[in-house]
Amino acid sequence: MKCILRILLLACALYFIETTKSPRREYTSTKVKDNCILDGSEESKNEVSVTVRGRTCVSWNILSRKYPSFRNCNHNYCRSLGNKIQPWCFVRKGNYYVREYCDIPLKEMKPTTTSPPTSDPTKQDTESTCGERRLNRITKIIGGSRSTVESQPWMAAIFKGEGFVCGGTLIAPCWILTAAHCFPDGKRTRIMKYSVYLGKNAINETDTVKEQQFNISKLVVHEDYNYKAEDFNNDIALLKIADSSGQCAVRTDYVRTACLPPFQQMLPTGFYCEIAGYGRHQKGGFKYSRYLKQAQVRLISQNACQKKYYSKDEVNENMFCAAGREWEEDACQGDSGGPLVCELNNTMFLFGIISWGKECAKKFNPGVYTKVTNYNNWISQHTGLPKYTAGSRYPQKD
Questions:
Q1: For 382, what's the count of Cα atoms within 13 Å in the CB-facing half-sphere?
Q2: Rounded to whole angstroms, how far apart are CA atoms 50 and 103?
Q3: ∠ CA 391-393-398 to the nearest 5 degrees?
Q4: Catalytic residue list contains 181
Q5: Which of 278, 395, 260, 268 has the alpha carbon at shortest distance from 341?
Q6: pLDDT confidence of residue 119
Q7: Which residue in the list 181, 243, 281, 289 is annotated as catalytic?
Q8: Across-strand partners of 341?
Q9: Given 80, 147, 336, 355, which residue is catalytic?
Q10: Where in the chain is the domain with CATH 2.40.10.10?
């Protein structure tokens, strides 16, 4: 009798345990499904978890420390997130997690409804749609203001491994214009170690909705740039970019191309233009800015630049000077390669590449910029894009 009683008590205990576990397990499962941002559309039916390179995706919640919104995504299936051309996932590569596109036939691709692109992802900027932007300033490049990337959508951030190197400017879907001195090894540069980001608001944060990441497939440093002389003459370089599937930049509110002005065109002295970058934001500072910043600078005459502030040996015909009001705005270390753009008829034209200067925002020491319009032919020769370098959007005189 005692034995039968013990069996009945044990059976009741087991039943009680099972009935308390089941709701908790179901609740967790339901909660995960309801809160995983990746699974808000029919695409959640896709259970592919292998990339085009044959690597297995890691579970999304592994990166929840960096991306808190992934914490309830307890699966490793490929998903469309951000303005990517096809579903992707994270894979482990050495000590890092990197993005790779997934091995999914085109007919199986379905767009997500949680993070829709701001424009048709198949469209790219052309020579007739460059220089357009959606202004969205928040309020330093030194003395400037914090900016959102919508205000400078052509801004590129160049990294070597995990370290930020220089800025750059998107001038065509597959091409970035930057400074030669950003690549001190010249032709010996190991471009596979470098990557380029567009649509980046902060160099130490990642926004998968806005950003597009690329490898460098080709580096062209101006053949007459002299690394030994350190005179910054011909301080210009081109980067050809492509993502892991071979695609170039997609046009969105956060990624656009800047227009090129016509050959040897220059604006009058005193004209105000904009510079942008992620560089140092304090005089004597040693840290890069966390966020993209921009400032207004005024063009200085070539005569004043060469005689009043510098010498003809320091500033030649391939350079020009610009400075902020009361000498309070300027580019600084870390801004190299970034844009100096000027607005005409609501269109932004790239006139300068941030090159060099003596200290930062120091009175009577203006910033010095590579004069882009001296290099239209050189850019056309190496990119094969004569329509982009013709400056067709530049206002014509009557």
A1: 20
A2: 6
A3: 100
A4: yes
A5: 260
A6: 38
A7: 181
A8: 274, 350
A9: 336
A10: 152-242
CATH of segment(s) 152-242: 2.40.10.10
Residue 359's alpha-carbon distances to 142, 329, 340, in angstroms, are: 11, 12, 18
- pLDDT bin (cut points 50, 70, 90) of residue 93 is confident
336 is catalytic: yes
Positive or negative: CA dihedral 351, 355, 358, 362: positive
Residue whose token pair is 């966020």: 291
| Separation CA 229–CA 231 (nearest Å) | 5
In the chain, count of helices (H) and strands (E)?
4, 15
Q: Which residues are 322's β-sheet partners?
A: 299, 367
Q: What does the pLDDT read at residue 33?
A: 41
- Token match 């008590």: residue? 9
Q: What is the distance between the alpha carbons of residues 268 and 179, in angstroms, rounded to a whole number? A: 24
Alpha-carbon distance of 362 to 354, in angstroms, equals: 16
Q: How far apart are CA 251 and CA 198, in angstroms?
A: 11
The string of pLDDT tens digits covering residues 229-267 is: 889 999 999 999 999 889 999 999 999 999 999 999 999
- Close Cβ partners of 58 (under 8 Å, ≥ 6 residues apart): 76, 89, 90, 91, 92, 97
Summarize the confidence of residues 385-393 as an average pLDDT. Answer: 95
In this structure, are residues 244 and 236 in contact, taking their beta carbons and an 8 Å threshold?
Answer: no
Q: Cα separation of 354 and 127, whole Å? A: 23
Active-site hit among 39, 125, 147, 235: 235
